[in-house]
Amino acid sequence: MQMNATGNTILITGGGSGIGRALAEALHSQGNEVIIAGRRRSMLEETVAANPGMKFLTLDIESPTAIRIFADQIATEFPALNVLVNNAGIMRAENLLAQQDGLADAEAIVTTNLLGPIRLTAALLPLLRKQAYSTIINVSSGLAFVPLALTPTYSATKAALHSYTLSLRYQLKGTTTEVLEIIPPYVQTDLMNGAEDPRAMPLKDYIAETVALLKTQPTPAEICVERVHPLRFADQSGKFDAVFTGLNDAMSAGH
């Protein structure tokens, strides 16, 4: 099976900024109905205003109750929903030698990046399964495969999301719901203030290559731009230790 390039009804979480917004705009421009969701209403409104016809709903991805209510709202307002893109995520640096009591940052990252997609997928799967054809796309990270020590919980949640995606795909094999994984490299976005970092891949280039891969027939299970291959395949290439050390030495030097 493969994801059709046009004619879908697509929900993208974290769609008000960064990769989520850029992906939403690209898919919207190709004739898909796109609904973006996120916490910050002002950013959602700004994105929709710049893209006539796009829709938005606010969502507190940390709240199980809010997710259930949101899923009911989606089913009522967008009953043809056939693509879910779990993109919302937060990334924070953590000093494990000087963590605050309560581990607020770590717990927020786990709740948003891992429990959020798990809960939202569970809530929307019955609706997706009603469609003739549907797709779930989880956005993980190259850091799922080679962790950035500066962001330990973020890297761990993305590794867990990759693992969850494999199991979800296996359980849905033979059904009309396919499961894809988008694995970004370091991209120029506001996540961890990387928008101006010359070491990061320009967002426009990243989206163009990603959308081209999504259009490939058949669509690959993992959407990996060339830039992320050294991270994604570090283990298979036998270069994990060198890649891990190189990544972490380079990024720690920048902080």
Task: Give a structural overview.
This protein is α/β, with parallel strands linked by helices. It contains 8 helices and 7 strands. It has one domain: Rossmann fold. The relative contact order is 0.13. The mean pLDDT is 95.
List the helices and strands and how they pair.
Layout: E1 9-13, H1 18-29, E2 33-38, H2 41-50, E3 55-58, H3 64-77, E4 83-86, H4 104-130, E5 134-139, H5 152-172, E6 177-182, H6 203-215, E7 222-223, H7 229-232, H8 240-253
Parallel strand pairs: 1-2, 1-4, 2-3, 4-5, 5-6, 6-7
Summarize the structure.
Helix content is 45%, strand content 13%.
Indicate the radius of gyration in whole angstroms: 18 Å
**Overall morphology:** globular
In terms of per-residue confidence, which ranges show pLDDT below 50 for 5 or more consecutive residues?
A: none
Overall strand count? 7
Oligomer: single chain
Question: Residue-averaged pLDDT, rounded?
Answer: 95
Order of helices and strands: EHEHEHEHEHEHEHH
Estimate what percentage of residues fall within beta strands: 5-15%
Query: Can you list the strand order of the major beta sheet?
Result: 3-2-1-4-5-6-7
Name of the CATH architecture: 3-Layer(aba) Sandwich
Kindly provide the name of the CATH class. Answer: Alpha Beta
Number of helices: 8
Q: The CATH topology, please?
A: Rossmann fold
Distance from N terminus to C terminus (CA atoms, Å) equals 44 Å
Helix percentage: 40-55%
